[in-house]
Structures are given as structure tokens and as C-alpha cells.
Amino acid sequence: MQDAAGAPLTSAEPSPSASSTSVDGGRFGPRTLLAAVALVVLVLDQVTKVAALATLTPGEPVDLVGSWIRLNIIRNPGAAFSLGDDATWVLTILSLAILVGVLVAARRVGDRTWGVTLGLLLGGAVGNLVDRFAREPGPGRGHVVDFIDYFGLFVGNVADIAIVLAAGVVMVLAHRGVPLGPGSGRHEANADD
């Protein structure tokens, strides 16, 4: 019931909770997508690594697609293609720099595709950083768990897939000239959720 004659039944301004939970007709905004994709990648990466450690034996690959794609567990102290085996701490610092760069870019993201792409990159970087800090031989020097063997050329993991996919999408977005966010540096009211 109305308290006073002529008073509207609803407020003229939307409630804060209604406007803060959805953007553009109920879809997730770019920053929410970034965070959600990063979390999904991180969880998938860590769950598959735990499963690989529990079920695979080093030196005993399991064929998935003939001998082209196999499950073959290794502990990688280096980067892709086993580069930098003797510089694990350098790779940790590089991964931390990428993490900081993605977090800085995340503040400006205003495009959903960029949000998903940065989420893939963030989730992959954090997934491998977890290994660098939490696995043997020790913090900052930990070996990354890799278990997906591609054609006998290299062995990777879910985090690596996310990082490579993100790199490909970044190249496409850059080629097409898709901006990360508003060009003037201003944040639009609906750029975030």
C-alpha cells in the first residue's frame, strides 16, 4: 500500500543489487567473464594434474588418439619444449610478470571477447604458477606437471592449452583492431558488473 497519496509504488531508480548483478540484458560483463573463465581454467588444470599424478606412471604413456595424442606424465622444470630447465626461478618471475600484466589489463577490459581471452591467460598462468610454488623441489622452483603428449613433440597440460588458445585469440583481436576497452581510458558505467 502507498504511504501517501500520489506516491509511486516503486522507486524511480533501480536498486543497487539489480544493476550490479547484470549488464546488457542479464548477460555477464567482461570482468565477470574474465574471472569466471580464469577460475574454470585453474580448477580444470589442477584437477586434471591431480588425476594425472594419481593414475599415470612416468615412462608408461597411454594412447588417446593412436600414438598421436597420449597421456604421458612428466615433471617439467622449464618452459614449453623443455626450454629453460636450469632457470625455473626465471620462469616463475616471468609468469608473475604476466599475471601482473593481465591484472592491469583486466581493469580496462570492456569487451567480452577480451574478457574471455584474458581469463584464459590468467587461469593458465595461475595454474602453472601453483605448480611453481607448491610442487617439488620447492617454492619458486617447483616443476610443472605436464601430461598431454602431442605427437611426441612436446608434453603440456590444461593451463598450457588455455595460454596457447589465448595467444591465438589475442593475435586475431589485435589484427582486427578490437580495443581492450574504451579508447579514451574512461570507464563506462556498464563496462563492469
Gyration radius (Cα, Å) is: 22 Å
Estimate the global geometry from the Cα principal axes: globular
Rounded to the nearest angstrom, the distance between the terminal CA atoms is: 33 Å
Q: What percent of the residues sit in helical stretches (DSSP H or I)?
A: 40-55%
The low-confidence runs, each spanning 5 or more residues with pLDDT under 50, are 13-26, 184-193
Describe the main β-sheet briefly.
4 strands, antiparallel
Q: Give the tally of structural domains.
A: 1
Give the overall pLDDT as a whole number. Answer: 81
The beta-strand count equals 4
Q: What's the tally of helices?
A: 5
Question: H/E order of the elements?
Answer: HHEEHHEEH
Largest beta sheet: what is the strand line-up? 1-2-3-4
Strand content: 5-15%
Q: Which structural class fits the helix and strand makeup? A: alpha+beta
Pfam families: Peptidase_A8
Keywords: Aspartyl protease, Cell membrane, Hydrolase, Membrane, Protease, Transmembrane, Transmembrane helix
Family: Belongs to the peptidase A8 family.
Pathway: Protein modification; lipoprotein biosynthesis (signal peptide cleavage)
